[in-house]
Amino acid sequence: MTGRDESAYLFLSLLQARTGTSFVSRLGDFPVAEIPDMSAAELGRLVRMTERAVRAFEELRRGFDPETMLDGLQRLGISVVTPPDPEYPQRLKQVPDPPPALFVNGKLPAPETPSVALVGSRKASVSGLDAARSLGRALGERGVCVVSGLALGVDAAAHEGALEAGGPTVGVLGCGIDVIYPRSNRRLFERVREGGAIVSEYHLGEAPLAWRFPARNRIIAGLCEAVVVVEAAEKSGALITARHALDAGGDVWAVPGPPGLPECRGSNKLIADGAGCVWDVPEFVQSVAPEPPEPASTDETSLGVALPAGLPEGEAAALAGVGFEPTGVDAVAGRSGLRMQELLSALALLELKGYVHRDGSGAFVRRAGG
Question: Closest Cα partner for 103 from 173, 154, 38?
Fold first, then answer.
């Protein structure tokens, strides 16, 4: 039997898909389970509804049969998760408008699996495609789930890189869960489903309408701890994903592109505005998914690099992340566990105090005795 809450969330999912109107975020604490039994007038007193929404609500309520709907999805190998379910991604609940239902074809990664979104232009340059594939492969090798939108360009390259490494990957659609768009990505769809999951907030048969793709981007952001914009123009949908990531408390990174190149102005501006800069793939991967530290040694060598006494906690953590060989700031961030803004402030103080210095490339080096 289908629970009342699950039925109600399924109902709202179909209603949102037909109207383009968000209901969940406007209902507040009102019990969702009561919605399918309400009249359009009663719902209208809670949420302002257009005439189109009223018609869609009344038509849907007359023909809504959740058990038949779920049986049909199950025969296709598609599952549904709603906010009350433990399988519903917790980070997704932090976006301003979490989807009332997720349709899943495949298997979502375990909740403890780190996830990173790789997004960017559908018409990416050769270097942009290479960067997306390299990042996808490196993250996949570390066991990080690569999330993207299964579009042409950067999205496809990111998924392919993850699959090449045998890592998990999730593709988020801006159309019905059974709709392959673009059709040229049919084989990639199958590979992503086999190696992870295809996800959509839209039921069977929903067309890839233009307004659904910006809405899709909030799900990409909400599934991940970090979003990387590989290559994006000033009005790219990838920038929408980045804004959703910030709204959900996630980190935003960007791959730097040639100065002045229109295809990279959006991603370069993110860096100028404070996003993390992905200038070295291994160091980026180490920063978002650090390898477990090696067991501490007690030999004389390790005793010779003990931290100076009396350092504030943040500076001590930053210094512990700097080696006697040049170390990039992304790697220091991964080792120290500090957020970038806090880390840069601590490193500046350590440099003033003479514990570290920067070499010609800008990498940090610990001074002997520091």
Answer: 173
Cα pseudo-dihedral 265, 269, 272, 278, rounded to 10? -70
Any idea which architecture 105-288 has in CATH?
3-Layer(aba) Sandwich (3.40)
Residue 340, Cβ neighbours under 10 Å: how many?
18
Helix axes 66-75 and 4-19, enclosed angle (nearest 10): 80
Element (H, E) at 145: strand 145-148
Task: Report how far residue 253's alpha carbon sits from residue 276's, in angstroms, rounded to the nearest whole number.
Answer: 4
CATH number of 300-366: 1.10.10.10
pTM, entire model = 0.77
Per residue in 301-317, pLDDT (tens digit) is 332 456 777 788 888 88
- In this structure, are strands 276-277 and 251-254 parallel, antiparallel, or unpaired? parallel
Q: Which of 83, 174, 72 is nearest to 122 (CA)?
A: 174
CA dihedral 181, 183, 187, 189 (to 10 degrees): 10
Identify whether the C-beta of residue 131 lies closer than 8 Å to the C-beta of residue 153.
no
Based on its alpha-carbon atoms, the radius of gyration of the chain, rounded to whole angstroms, reads: 23
Sequence-distant (6+) residues with CB within 8 A of 12 are 23, 24, 32, 35, 100, 101
Q: Is the peptide bond between 308 and the residue preceding it cis, with omega within 30 degrees of 0?
A: no
- Decide: helix, strand or coil at residue 32: helix
Return the C-alpha torsion angle 280, 234, 219, 26, nearest 10: 140
Tens digits of per-residue pLDDT, 185-236? 999 999 999 999 999 999 999 999 998 999 999 999 999 999 999 999 998 8
